Amino acid sequence: MMRVIVLFFSLLLLCAGTLFATPADAFQVTTDPQTVSPGDPFLIRITELSKARHPVAFFAGRKFMFVTCGDDCAIAVCAADLALKPGKYRIMVTAGERKRRATITVRRHAPAVMRITLPPDKVTLSPDDMRRVEREENLLKALWIEQAEKMWDGSFLLPLQNEVSTQFGVKRVINNKTVSFHRGIDIRGKEGEGVRASNSGRVVLAEELYFGGNTLVIAHGMGIFTVYMHLDSFGTNKGKNVSKGEIIGFVGSTGRSTGPHLHFGVKVQDASVNPVTFMELKL
C-alpha cells in the first residue's frame, strides 16, 4: 500500500513539473536604451528564443520585424515618432504563441525654434506647385511601407563628415506661423563634394523634387531608409545596389535651398528618426 501511495505522489509531482515548467520557447525582452526623446531610435532585443519562431514587435501603432544578432538572439530597430507625447509606452512582442511585454519611456523634450521671415510669395504655393508637392508626398509615403530583407552592414555612418548646421527636430516658424519640424539634419558641404551611402542597400528613388531638389533614397531593409536631399547631381541610379561608404551623389543647392549643403534624413518604417542618435546604434 505504501509503495502505491509513493508511486501516486511521484506521478503527481511529475505532472506538476510538466505543467509549470518554463516553456521551451520562452524568451526575454529588453530595450536599449530604455528612455528616449521624440524622434530617437532604440533597439528591442530578445534572447533565449529556443524554439520560438518569427518574432514581431508592436509599438505605437507600428509593426517591427526582427533580425538575428547571434545565437539565440534577435533585434528589431524601432523609433519613437517625433509626435509622441512624453510618457511610458508598452511594447508587445510575439514569437510563435508566446507573448512578452516591455516598456519604453519617452522623455519631455523642448525643441529649438528657428524663426524665419520671408516674402509671402516664397511661402504660399501656387495651385500647380501644391499639386506637385502632394504628388511627391504620396510618392515618398509609398516608399516607407516597403519591407525588404535586411541589406545593411553593421552600424550606419554619416554621409558627410562635416559640421551639422541645423539639428533634427527644430521647429521652424515662418512669418510667425509654425510651419513644420525639421525631420533630418543639415550638414554643411562644398558644391560638388562627394556624398557617401550611410550603409549598404538599394536605391529606390533618384529624382528631382520640389522641396528636396535632387533627392536620393536608399532602402536598407526591415523598413529602414536614408534620404539625401539638395544634391547637385546623382552618382548612382534607381534600382542600383550600393555599398556602405560608396559615393552616391554630390553636394548641391537644388530645390528649396539657400546654399550648398546636404539634408540627411532617416526613416524607420514611416517615422522620421534623429540621424545623429541613429548613427549611435550598435547594429
Summarize the structure in words.
The protein has 283 residues and is mainly beta. It folds into 2 domains: 2-106, Sandwich (Immunoglobulin-like); 113-277, Glucose Permease (Domain IIA) (Distorted Sandwich), CATH 2.70.70.10. It contains 3 helices and 22 strands. It has helices at 2-20, 127-144, 275-279, and strands at 28-32, 35-36, 41-47, 56-59, 62-65, 67-68, 73-79, 87-95, 98-106, 113-116, 164-166, 171-174, 177-181, 185-188, 194-196, 201-209, 213-221, 224-234, 241-242, 247-251, 261-268, 271-273. The strands form 4 sheets. Strands 11, 14, 15, 16, 17, 18, 19, 20, 21 and 22 form a 10-stranded antiparallel β-sheet that branches. It has a 5-stranded mixed β-sheet with strand order 2-9-8-4-5, with no helix packed on it. Strands 1-3-7-6 form a 4-stranded antiparallel β-sheet, with no helix packed on it. The model is unreliable at 4-25 (pLDDT under 50).
